[in-house]
Amino acid sequence: MASPVRIAPSILSADFSRLGAEIAALEKAGADMIHVDVMDGHFVPNITIGPPIVKALRPYAKIPFDVHLMVAPVDPYLEAFAEAGADGISVHPEAGPHIHRTLQVIRELGKKTGVVLDPGTPVDYLDSVLDLVDLVLIMTVNPGFGGQSFISSMLGKVEAAAERIAKSGRKIALEVDGGITPQTAKRAVSAGANLLVAGTAVFKGGQKNYAANIAALRG
Ligand code: DX5
Ligand code: ZN
Questions:
Q1: What share of the chain is helix, strand, coil (3-state, %, to 5)?
Q2: Distance from the CA of 28 to the CA of which of 61, 73, 84, 120 falls in 20 to 30 A?
Q3: How many Cβ atoms sit within 10 Å of the Cβ of residue 117?
Q4: Residue 22 belongs to what H/E stretch?
Q5: Facing residues of 70 across strands?
Q6: How far apart are CA 188 and CA 180, in angstroms?
Q7: If we measure between CA atoms, which residue out of 153, 157, 142 comes closest to residue 45?
Q8: Count of CB atoms within 10 A of residue 183's CB?
Q9: Residues of the chain with pLDDT under 50
């Protein structure tokens, strides 16, 4: 029996004027993780939050902080996010010169490692780092903003990643991020995803809807 699909709401769509209360509400509504989209305005055309905000948010929820670093160069910031309370740190191969060493450093910091494949990044990038990752994140939008449409041609990449993970024999989460709705969630899960990031679909209708919105994504 496959383990239930986990949901990681992205705080990108939260009310930034009360982020602490928002992540507490997400935990209460049944979120499995908090997906923290960190953007630097250089690697992606948007700026969100940094380590001090992650540190301030840490006491508001017990569930893991799944930190997605859309930051380049990414290496100088790994320790700060680890110390701020990240449980997992996911990085893009394009965000530094040595993805293998970056993942080693995240491991040495005692955190779960993730590699993120943008829509334009080939799935082969996984082949030389699969033994170092706890999570593979397949972007189904180009990173930077919530509310974009799901790029369905990425489903083939999800399947290819799932195949590689199965062959590795290692326990690696397969996460999908971008344009996830109850409809696209089903397609992502049938392609092999077991962890879904969603912003718009979780936050719509306000806190009273979070539990139902999360349940609808689990299917
Ligand atoms: C893009 C972000 C978004 C976000 C999810 O960089 O990572 O994918 O978290 O946004 P929605 O669920 O609104 O597409
Ligand atoms: Zn993300």
A1: 45, 20, 35
A2: 84
A3: 22
A4: helix 19-28
A5: 39
A6: 8
A7: 142
A8: 12
A9: none
User: What pLDDT, on a 0 to 100 scale, did the predictor assign at position 2?
Assistant: 64
Atom 4 of ligand 1, nearest CA residue: 146
**Tens digits of per-residue pLDDT, 132-166?**
999 999 999 999 999 999 999 999 999 999 999 99
Place of tokens 């971008």: 178
Atom of ligand 1 nearest to the CA of 35: 9
- pTM of this structure: 0.97
Give 101 Cα–ligand 1 centroid separation in angstroms. Answer: 27
Q: Which amino acid is at 118?
A: D
- List the structure tokens of 141: 């939008």
Atom of ligand 1 nearest to the CA of 145: 1
Distance CA 154, CA 143 (A): 14
- Is 66 in contact with 12 (CB distance < 8 Å)? no
What DSSP designation does 150 have? P
Tell me the best of 26, 145, 181, 195 to mutate to test the pocket of ligand 1, counting ligand atoms within 8 Å of each CB and taking the most: 145
pLDDT tens digits, one per residue of 116-133: 999 999 999 999 999 999
Annotated active-site positions, please? 37, 177
Q: How many CB atoms lie within 10 A of CB 190?
A: 11
Strand boundaries in the chain, DSSP class E: 6-9, 34-39, 65-70, 88-91, 112-117, 135-139, 173-177, 195-198
Output the six-digit token pair for 201.
């679909």
Which domains does the chain carry? 11-218 (3.20.20.70)
